[in-house]
Design brief:
It is a single chain. This protein is α+β, with helices and mostly antiparallel strands. It has three domains: 102 residues, OB fold (Dihydrolipoamide Acetyltransferase, E2P) (Beta Barrel); 36 residues, E3-binding domain (Dihydrolipoamide Transferase, Irregular), CATH 4.10.320; 204 residues, 2-Layer Sandwich (Chloramphenicol Acetyltransferase). The strands form four sheets. Strands 10, 13, 14, 15, 16, 17 and 18 form a seven-stranded mixed beta sheet that branches. Strand 13 and strand 14 form a beta hairpin. Helix 5 crosses helix 6 and helix 5 packs across helix 7. It is globular.
C-alpha cells in the first residue's frame, strides 16, 4: 500500500487561492475515482473536484470557509501500489490540470484534519459531478430545489424520498439529517408536532461560500456608493394586453413572455437615451466607463443565494430572443450550471420579486454599476383618466437606485419617466 497526496490544482488564469466551499469526503472513508471530493470557490463560481484515485482517506487539510493556496495538499489517500508521495531525496512532479467545470452549489459537512505539508504533485482532471442515483423519486409539490446538503440529498436518493415533501427546520427551511430521518420514521408523513416548549438554543452559522461573497458585495456597494432612490408608478394595462396577444400568437419555438422582457426592452431604450446610466464608475482612477454594449443583469434568487446572470448584448436582440436568453441564463444560475462569463460583466441590473414584489423597494446597486431598476408587483387600482373618468387599471411601481456620484437626480427622474412612457405606450418599444 502507498500514499497518494492530492493537491489543489490550478483553477484558472490568475487564481492563486480558493475557498473551500464544501468537503464531501471524511477521514476513514473509502472513495472511488471521480467521486465528488471537494468544492472550491473562486469569485461566484464553485469548482467541483472529484477524487483522482480509488483509496481510503487518511487525512483532510482545511475546513469549509478557509482559503487554500493553489498547489497545497488537501487530501492524503491510502492506495494500492506505490502512490505518489515523494521519497526522501526526490522531487515531485509539478502540478498540472485541465480547465475545471463550474457549478453554483455549496453545502456544509465540514471536516478538518491536521494539514499535510508536501510539495506540489500532479493534479487530477476536474470533471462534472456524476448523478448519485438513477432511481425515480416521488413527485413533489413544488419545483423549487429544497435547501439541503449533498449528504442529505444522497441519503434521500438512497431512501427514495422526495426532499420537496420534507419539512426543514433550519434557516430558510434548510433540511437537516434529523429532518429527513424524522420524515422517514413517520412513514413518509410529517411527524406530529410535540407540545409547544420554550427554545433556548442558538445556532451559529459561518458565513462562507457564496453567502460570504454576497455579503461582501453588498457591503462594498453600500459603503462605497452614495445611493439615490426614485420610485415611479406605471400603468401597464396596455403592455399587459400586448403581452397576452403575443403569447396567444407565438410560435412553438418562442418562449412565453412575462412582463420582464418588456421592462428589459424599455430599459434598453432608456440606456440608449441616457448613456450615463449604462456605466461603471472606477473611483480609484476617477473614471466613468460608458458602454456602447448593453449587458442586462437579471438579479435571480437561487438555492445558493442571490446571483446576477447576464443577458449580454441586449441591444442586438428582439423581445423573443431577449426572453429566451433571460430564461436560459437564469435557469443555469438556479441549477448551478452558469458559466463564469454568464455571471459577470453586466452594465445595468434589473431586480424583481415577481408577484410578491411589494409596493416599493430600495434596491442596492450592483457594484461597479451606477443604476439598478427594481420591479414591484402588478395590482389593479382605480385611476382617474382624462380628469373625468375613473377606470380600473393594472398598475405597477418601478423602484430605482442610482450612484449619485455619476447620475444626477434630474437625469435619474428623466430616465424613469422615459421607461414609464415606453411601457404605457408599448408600440414605442418596437419603433
Amino acid at each position: 500500500m502507498g500514499q497518494y497526496i492530492f493537491r489543489l490544482p490550478d483553477l484558472g488564469e490568475g487564481i492563486v487561492e480558493a475557498e473551500i466551499a464544501a468537503l464531501h469526503a471524511r477521514v476513514g472513508e473509502n472513495v472511488k475515482e471521480d467521486q465528488p471530493l471537494v468544492d472550491m470557490m473562486t469569485d461566484k463560481a464553485t469548482v467541483e473536484i472529484p477524487s483522482p484515485v480509488d483509496g481510503k482517506i487518511l487525512s483532510v487539510s482545511g475546513k469549509e470557509g478557509e482559503m487554500v493556496p493553489v498547489g497545497s495538499a488537501l487530501v492524503v489517500f491510502e492506495v494500492e501500489g506505490a502512490g505518489n508521495a515523494p521519497e526522501a531525496g526526490t522531487e515531485p512532479a509539478p502540478a498540472t490540470t485541465k480547465e475545471p467545470v463550474t457549478k453554483a452549489e455549496a453545502a456544509p459537512e465540514p471536516v478538518a484534519e491536521k494539514p499535510v505539508a508536501e510539495k506540489p504533485v500532479a493534479a487530477p482532471e476536474v470533471k462534472p459531478q456524476a448523478a448519485l442515483s438513477s432511481k425515480p423519486v416521488l413527485s413533489g409539490a413544488t419545483s423549487d430545489k429544497p435547501l439541503a446538503s449533498p449528504a442529505v440529498r444522497r441519503h434521500a436518493l438512497e431512501q427514495n424520498v422526495d426532499l420537496s415533501r420534507v419539512p426543514g427546520s433550519g434557516p430558510a427551511g434548510r433540511i437537516s439529517h434529523q429532518d429527513l430521518e424524522d420524515f422517514i420514521a413517520a412513514g413518509g408523513r410529517v411527524a406530529a408536532q410535540p407540545a409547544r416548549q420554550k427554545r433556548t438554543a442558538v445556532e451559529e452559522l459561518p458565513v462562507i461560500g457564496i453567502r460570504r461573497k454576497i455579503a461582501q458585495q453588498m457591503e462594498l456597494s453600500k459603503r462605497s456608493i452614495p445611493h439615490y432612490s426614485y420610485v415611479e408608478e406605471v400603468d401597464v394595462t396596455e403592455v399587459e394586453k400586448l403581452r397576452q396577444f403575443l403569447n396567444a400568437n407565438r410560435t412553438e419555438d418562442q418562449v412565453k413572455l412575462s412582463i420582464l422582457p418588456f421592462i428589459m426592452m424599455a430599459t434598453l431604450k432608456g440606456m440608449e437615451k441616457f448613456p450615463e446610466c449604462n456605466s461603471h464608475y472606477d473611483p480609484d482612477q476617477s473614471l466613468v466607463r460608458r458602454y456602447a454594449a448593453i449587458h442586462l443583469g437579471i438579479a435571480t434568487q437561487t438555492p445558493n443565494g442571490l446571483m446576477v446572470p447576464v443577458v449580454s448584448h441586449a441591444e442586438a436582440r428582439d423581445i423573443w430572443d431577449m426572453a429566451a436568453e433571460m430564461q436560459r441564463v437564469t435557469s443555469a444560475g438556479r441549477e448551478g450550471k452558469a458559466k463564469r462569463e454568464e455571471l459577470s460583466g453586466s452594465t445595468v441590473t434589473i431586480t424583481s420579486l415577481g408577484k410578491i414584489g411589494g409596493i416599493v423597494t430600495t434596491p442596492v446597486i450592483n457594484h461597479p454599476e451606477v443604476c439598478i431598476i427594481g420591479v414591484n408587483k402588478i395590482t389593479p387600482r382605480p385611476m382617474v383618466i382624462n380628469d373625468t373618468d375613473i377606470q380600473i387599471r393594472q398598475m405597477m411601481n418601478l423602484s430605482s437606485s442610482f450612484d449619485h456620484r455619476v447620475v444626477d437626480g434630474y437625469v435619474a427622474a428623466e430616465l424613469m419617466q422615459y421607461i414609464k412612457g415606453a411601457l404605457e405606450q408599448p408600440a414605442t418599444l418596437f419603433m
